Amino acid sequence: MTNNKQKIHVIGGGLAGTEATWQIAQAGIPVVLHEMRPVRLSPAHHTGELAELVCSNSFGAKNSDRAAGLLHEELRRLGSIIIATADKHSVPAGGALAVDRAVFSQNLTETLANHPLIELRREEITEIPTDGVVVLTTGPLTSPELAENLRRLTGMEYFSFFDAASPIITGESINRDLAFLASRYDKGEAAYLNCPMNKEQYLRFWRELCAAEQAPVKDFERENAKFFEGCLPIEELAQRGEDTMRYGPLKPVGLFDPRQPENERDRPYAVVQLRQEDQAGQLWNMVGFQTNLRWGEQKRVFRLIPGLESAEFVRMGVMHRNTFINSPQLLHPTLQFKNRSTLLAAGQLIGTEGYTAATAGGWLAGTNAARIVLGLSTIAVPPTTMMGALLEFISSAEPKHFQPMPPNFGIIPELPVRIGKKRERYRKYSERSLSDLDNWQAQLNDLSLVLTN
């Protein structure tokens, strides 16, 4: 008979580790969550809270006809604590699910710390335990000692790329005479502050940004690393051409100042958007402004943006190196290591990109860790779901060219009948995904593991 009192060890208290730990405890199994913060901070983290959001406070689009939104809904149906907490502490962000990140992380930390089956140990783990069931969720900033241990265990080197975080500024320092509150095409709640630029202002900003001095990348080796295209520093975009930013994070399409009469509205040449960071609207994140500029340069150049002339920065942009394993060679779709079935991994360490994707991996790794201890077969999520397609991709992609992958409809199996219109096609993908997920849940015959709250 299986000893269901055997403790499972989860290493890493980010989004994936927090989710995995919760799912294990919900299955009635004792779990030890090891988190090195605040004993040892990473180059990107600022607190010792669990599930700290480093780059942004947004989980992506809400609607289920968008890739991120579909993954949100799948995780809601699977009883994700991360998504439930995000819903509970959401802040206005138009069509996106964004949270008050401080309250969000504090709530999760308190919830896990007070759970009778969860033991939270504040310690650095430098070697993966060789016995028992272990879930590895140390994230893209795995400590060098543990990374070396994992390298020896797998016999493989890592890929790595550079990632960056946007600055956060105080709401009271924003010039509301220039910045206007609106959403693109007036869709949803007007939750973004928009700083419009005319052509002269934009070109001056672009030239200064291109010439601004970047900070050295401390404690990381730049050789053999590259940027992830989904999170490029704003200065990198600027270097790619005069109009690159205007077709990216500064695109003006669909944004108009509602204070102007409709017959007098002119579309700005470029727009910098600010997303509300906290519930009270005291902090605002510069959308798309991941950066590695020196802090003094950030203040000088970003204050050229109309409305931000007197901006007060509470967090400067930073850049750090992300590391991920070659998952197609190492992992099954169940997120078990091929050479050790009792070792599982999840989060950005395995090459899923984004908060919601990390949560999805944490859910599956935690669920399967629990199933192993309970003597049940491990499971893979149907590939017609966003979650299943993403985890299938990271375990079956071409290893030689493997790169981090965010949720997207391009990885989902095609529909039986081709639909030309993209929006309608995505809606059909979403309908099939949620239907298949519901059927899959209903067919699971081991009711000892609760799959929904």
Mean pLDDT: 88
Order of helices and strands: EHEEHHEEHEEHEEEEHEHEEHEEHEEHHH
Shape: globular
What percent of residues adopt helix (DSSP H or I)?
25-40%
Would you write up a description of this structure?
This protein folds into two domains: 270 residues, FAD/NAD(P)-binding domain (3-Layer(bba) Sandwich), CATH 3.50.50; 156 residues, Beta Barrel (Elongation Factor Tu (Ef-tu), domain 3). It is built from twelve helices and 18 strands. The strands form four sheets. A six-stranded mixed sheet has the order 6-2-1-7-18-17, with helices on one face. A six-stranded antiparallel sheet has the order 10-11-13-14-9-15. Helix 2 runs parallel beside helix 10 and helix 2 packs parallel to helix 12. The two termini are 27 Å apart. The C terminus is likely disordered.
Keywords:
Elongation Factor Tu (Ef-tu), domain 3, disordered C terminus, 453 residues, 2 domains, alpha/beta, FAD/NAD(P)-binding domain
What's this model, at a glance?
With 453 residues, this protein is α/β, with parallel strands linked by helices.
